[in-house]
Amino acid sequence: MKDYFFDEIFEEMRSGLKEFFSHPESNVVRPPANIKETQDKWLIEIALPGVKKDDIRIKIDENKIMSVEGESFPEEEEIICFHRLEWSLRKFKVKFQLSDDSDPSQIESILKDGILKITVPKREKKSIEIKIE
Questions:
Q1: Is 20 inside any structural domain?
Q2: Is 14 a domain residue?
Q3: What is the pLDDT of residue 22?
Q4: Model pTM score
């Protein structure tokens, strides 16, 4: 007896995987990131081993979505073969939705020891008093 239910599920999985791997950005890596919050800022740390600061672009769109992307270019060496390759960024991209209380105009970033640190200050919370007439 043939189980068409499972055949349909597996076919969907196969077509989904095929679509994923044939996607133009399927060779783009999403680097690991940590996000921390303090009283007055957000701190985003992204692991980018071996990447130079000139190879990184940070953009913020009109919807407060911050994109960090770029490419790493390996040192020019004659490599016969890799015996172990656990990280290789080549093309990378990661996006973050900035919070409503963030101040994109005051963002600072620094790349040190393979970690990109992005500091996103929070805006001061101001209460508004409305006069009653």
A1: no
A2: no
A3: 43
A4: 0.69
